[in-house]
Amino acid sequence: MFPCLNPSDVQDGGFSFNNCSRNAALESSFSESSSKPPKARKTGTTIAGIVFKDGVILGADTRATDDMVVADKNCVKIHCIAPKIYCCGAGVAADAQITKQILASNVELHTLNTGRPPLVAMVTRTLKQMLFRYRGQVNSSLIVGGVDVDGAHLYSVYPHGSYDKLPFVTLGSGAEAAVSVFEDRFKPNMELEEGKQLVRDAIAAGIFCDLGSGSNVDLCVITQAGASFLRGFDKPTTKGRREGSYMYKPGTTAVLTKTVTPFCLDVIDQSVHAMDTK
Amino acid sequence: MNTLDVRSQLKDSVPVAGFGPHGSYGLQDSLRTGFTSIKNELIPSHSLELSEKNFQVNQDKMNMSTLRNIQGIHAPLKLKMELKAATQIQRLPFLPSSHLALDTLRGSDETIGFDDILNDPNQSEVMGEPHMMVEYKLVQRLRWRDTPFPISMQMLISCPQMFTLHTTCRE
Fold first, then answer.
1. In the A/B pair of chains, how many CB contacts fall below 8 A?
2. What is the pTM of this model?
3. ipTM summary value
């Protein structure tokens, strides 16, 4: 007798909640036995974006953490949604990645349908409607930035579906560190090099002051002419190189005499201690 | 403002006619459905379970009522008639159907969501038992006749046209 479905529980696709009560029972049994259940890998991120004179600059760090261990030292957090619209994701890494992929596919289908380049507002609306539908269970916060026919726009979207349209935004665990740099030095209509330096400094503040962010700074500059993704724009955490050598030259001190005395050792007592490897 | 009362938070708030997990006489069918527990059947095990189950139904209700308010009663009536016709162009219940007309009418051929990526029914590892699935479908269609007995396949094979005609006239 092969396994088969009941007519009453034919699945239609999408999320399946069959294992939820089992998972809840497993989690409660974990908490009783004082061992922790496995946690989802988060990106523990600093992501930031500003609107400058010609467009938008997005920045992100490159560390992915697995609870207290660095899972990926050089991951990519900025992804392309449309040729001139890019998106940075924070939160649970899998949720952020799949959300961006679904978003990119939907925006491409919409572009083919309308025959026009997409608006950043359309991208944000699709995203927030999807996140609201899942009530924040899709645990990813995203920054959407790009240039369209109406100009340059920058939105930040939170896991429950709320969004803000601002000239500068930061998200992730290092958001407070990065936003302090922006609050101090941001001016409207900055030049390109000044803007890049500002975003780089904000991400570096997140890298140094937040444990969940680290490694390199990635930047993405989007203007009316197009987008350029500067991977590894700055590496503030590389180790320094030693300038000099601390080895003494041979012949620095002269050897006057040498005597060799052999030791004779006998084994008197032996005892074995077991190591506590639990 | 929360207008949901306690009963709509239960799993059977959107009732499906015909067989449930209980057998044909309202009794527990342990052979086919295994051990049941009232708590598992009534109380949702995840906060999203009910809202996802009812999502398409609620979207349709909202869209139909908006259409009715803007364009008058004819718009949802015509759409519902076309949707009903499109749901009938499907293969036998245990075989995968492409739902092409249904997707085009609903507009879901231009969007990708989690229902297209996760748990694709075309790539399911188990299939429904053919006799039971067809029986379920037939009893659903003929429920006005109130027959709990299984209907043999011979009736279906010999006069399939009769069954389809019944549906279009009746509903």
1. 92
2. 0.76
3. 0.72
